[in-house]
Amino acid sequence: MGMSVIAFKIGDKVRSSKRPEWGDGSIMKLDAITFQGKSDVQIYARFQAVGVKTLLASAADLIAADGANDDSLTAIHRPSTLNDADATKHKGWLGSIDGCKAQEIMTKLPPAATDPFLSLRKRLENTVALYRFDGDNGRLIEWSVAQSGLDDPMSRFNRNELEQFYKRWKFELDAHLKELLGEVRREPETLQAAMAKASVAAQRAVQKLQSTAK
Known about the structure:
It is a single chain. The protein is α+β, with helices and mostly antiparallel strands. Strands 4-3-2-1-5 form a five-stranded antiparallel beta sheet. The chain has helices at 3-7, 57-60, 72-75, 82-89, 93-96, 99-107, 111-114, 120-129, 138-148, 159-183, 188-194, 200-213, and strands spanning 13-16, 25-35, 38-47, 51-56, 62-64. The chain folds into two domains: 3-75; 82-213, no CATH class. Strand 2 (25-35) and strand 3 form a beta hairpin. The protein starts with a helix and ends with a helix. Helices cover 49% and strands 16% of the residues.
């Protein structure tokens, strides 16, 4: 059973590590169910950016939004954000975060995609899921919200800065995916499973990287 079943209760504030652009959420209801022959919990949570979402606890990958339910098992998947960096200093933005630190945070891939303690399949699934951010128009803002942890990244960066951060982040994403494809070359069933629900953009990226590796 996933950590969500154990760690959370009605009223808890949460974030989705898979969809951080949803913003903070609040758990409204928990229903015990049987799914594919196994006991699970159906979670109803209202998120700032997308409203109510229904999630399975075993697959939700929720983390505590306020740290109240944090532990070593969930914290390992929490990305470092600009809000985190600011909070450690207890100062305003300009006094606490220099340009180099901001660039590092805005271009770094989340631990859920790179953590070596996760299975290869899980790292692949989390990596290809990041291709939902195509960098165009609203998606650029969604990406910057997820990456920075800020409700309004435009209050800190201009659009040109965000576009430059995104290009570097996308370069890192492609390079990381290429490494994973090298690892999974002898496990075609793992790649097939990881790509089962991948977006068209992710499928194209995999095809492109596979063709250049031949």
